[in-house]
Amino acid sequence: MTKQMLIGMHLGNGYGTIPGSWRAPGMDPTNYTSFDAKVRQAQAAERGKLQFLFFPDGPSHVGDLDNEPPGFNLDVMVTLAAVARETSRIGMVATGSTTFNEPFNVARHFKALDVLSHGRTGWNAVTSSAEDVAANYGRQLPPSHERYGRAHEVVHLVQALWGSWEQSAWTHDQESGRYAHADQVAPINLGGQYVASRGPLYIPPSEQGQPVIFHAGGSPNAHQFAGRWANAVIGSAFSIDDARAQREAFREGAERAGRNPDEIKFIVGLMTSLAPTKRESLDRRISLSGRVFGQRASYLGHMLGLHLDAKNLDRPLAPEQLAAARPSPADPRSVHALEVAHQGWTVRDILAHGVIDYHPVITGPAVEAANHMQEWFEADAADGFWILPDLEEGGVDDFVDGVVPILQDRGLFHHDYEGTTLREHLGAPAQYGVDPRVTQ
Amino acid sequence: MTKQMLIGMHLGNGYGTIPGSWRAPGMDPTNYTSFDAKVRQAQAAERGKLQFLFFPDGPSHVGDLDNEPPGFNLDVMVTLAAVARETSRIGMVATGSTTFNEPFNVARHFKALDVLSHGRTGWNAVTSSAEDVAANYGRQLPPSHERYGRAHEVVHLVQALWGSWEQSAWTHDQESGRYAHADQVAPINLGGQYVASRGPLYIPPSEQGQPVIFHAGGSPNAHQFAGRWANAVIGSAFSIDDARAQREAFREGAERAGRNPDEIKFIVGLMTSLAPTKRESLDRRISLSGRVFGQRASYLGHMLGLHLDAKNLDRPLAPEQLAAARPSPADPRSVHALEVAHQGWTVRDILAHGVIDYHPVITGPAVEAANHMQEWFEADAADGFWILPDLEEGGVDDFVDGVVPILQDRGLFHHDYEGTTLREHLGAPAQYGVDPRVTQ
User: Fold this and answer.
1) Sign of the dihedral defined by the CA atoms of residues B196, B199, B203, B204, in that order
2) What is the per-residue pLDDT across A376-403, written as a single tens digit (0 to 9) for each?
3) Could you give the ipTM of this predicted complex?
4) Among the four given CATH numbers 3.40.50.300, 3.20.20.70, 3.20.20.30, 3.30.70.2470, the one describing domain B6-273+365-438
5) pLDDT digits (tens, 9 = 90+) for A31-60
6) What does pLDDT average to over chain A?
7) Which residues of B touch A70 (CB under 8 A)?
8) What distance in Å separates residue B247's CA from the closest CA in chain A?
9) Å from A17 to nearest chain B CA?
10) Which intervals of the chain form a coiled coil (chains A, B) (predicted)?
């Protein structure tokens, strides 16, 4: 069988990932607090055989609340629990900070979620990098090397706790009266510079043993951390070359930790605004997000070395502007923005292409998303994609009904789940407790 | 309307509260990890119109694993989330430590659970008092006054975070484009000796505003803490006099904090082994727990000032033993144990009465439980009861189908939920954020 891509679906605040998504026609404005909506989107993604849902988390959520909702879920672990009972196959990955959680609490929450979900849970272990978040915990943000120092200890300790109830310990044999092999449930007695725990944890193995570790980050510290601990990386890149380099860095990180580089999957973000035509897609984005385009025009000018503002929105760039434009080396999105400008779109339409969004953006028919994914995948730029639809309500269905069948027809995406656990969905090797290769 | 009692149902490890419950006929030995079982018991309790479920937590769970399961849930917050989606009226109370949790995490988890459950969540805020638990967090247990010092700060801070998104802040008006009144979502900037947080929390009010605070503890520190913060106490007492004194101490604690003492409900534990006859109840307990009776006989002797051991199980106490017996003042259960002994039961049957259990035990038909509850309730020993069935599987139904109708017939328990939120079920006053009376 040829190699096939992995696909995850981002589920955030219940509305979507572009400004104004909460005001879209047909959008229930209370989706932010609606677990019904989350279950509905999760079931849609599962219908498309996507390998996992991704629940991102801050947690600080400070923003322009007058006009826009907070960016994330109410609480990712609560959401995961609610969704787990009403889905049966799709994996579920929630972000959890290694800096602002007690390791024992992370260990128990996530392993309980893994049991609840019958082995479909992943922990996106991140160090948190925002002062806003630190302030909610009454602290200042530690420097990166300290955060990663603690992160290594936390994941080591959490995995040791996960393995502290050995896989054969739970006999629950009513006839003999042997509930468990107590000698297979042992303290871990681990402690380092930042965290410690005696254990054991009192939770038996899940169907996949224990949750799968994800990571999100882009620094050399991240490559080392993910290379040692993670089976998947939630990544971000604006070009094939960038993505390929990042993927390679994570694979090298895995090799340095004594692992097979194929054990770590680089999953790159892709935003979608699917519609039958590009014009419809752009118009939807303009009608939802147009409010912020004046401000974005100014930043677009900055990206291109031009003066642009809200008054220029209705015109394409003039030939002399195009001639003078220089992509800013400080923003990796600038080259693509200039390419779009050269196509003759008005400034408003250039912005509607999403040239200032957090990931590459597909504006138009499903086949364009499929083409993009195929190109990146075949260029070894990614092992898969996490999809951020402009609208959670409807956008998940559009992807599942539009893009997935094309990828399946091309042999690039599976037709059904091969197994029942997230570990199987990802092709990650069996692991219980700490991988002995990475702690020598 | 005459005053009516409150009733909560303890749901722990999925089996029950007596040794050997996991081996009961018809018991699925995997109930420990079964969320289906939890949902089933929760729905049974809801059918009985019980005001709340109580999910206790350690978390250390060290025990005789060869023979007995851990004592608690896999993870109470995960359990609460799973049960919330499949019940609609019953309240749900989960224990969470103020010593071993980050306040911001407690605030977000519980408020998200309260939104998920449509206003049916309670937080049993406890300080944790076991070295076993502290060791799991890599620490030693702080002394009681420090734990309660931190507990006051944590609950204050958590309630402030709950109130930091004001009740009228969330407009989500799609037509005008006003998502929220940002000026009604404000940092709390609270910090004390132990914990701090800037906030705000980004979660709108639930149907009951915010979770209800419970407490479990018996010291003067507990009376002061619960008096200030709690609307209900998960209590434990072996006699009406003791319960009445405890209830009064909590009510006085509330008054000292400037509150109406009726705002705090004292809920006392009651274990049930219901069966058509006492003999059947005792025989069930013997067949399940008989394994530990040898050891318990020895302790029973200690309680009565006698020498008893496994060889004496089949005989009642001899007249000279009864004459010599003296209830130990160190164990409040001793008086009742001697009363049962005087009734002429064998040592095995005395033990089967549950005279060494953690709460008073009803062994026999449902009417005996109803009588006990009526007597205590009418003596002002409790505002309600939390029921610990010997078997979760079946024992919840036995209580709901046997005891509840008797209490209803006697006018002592409601026939249906008066409202939809836990706050309404408890008759607790409206509150959002910090009660201004208790922080002056």
Assistant:
1) positive
2) 999 999 999 999 999 999 999 999 999 9
3) 0.97
4) 3.20.20.30
5) 999 999 999 999 999 999 999 999 999 866
6) 96
7) 202
8) 33
9) 15
10) none
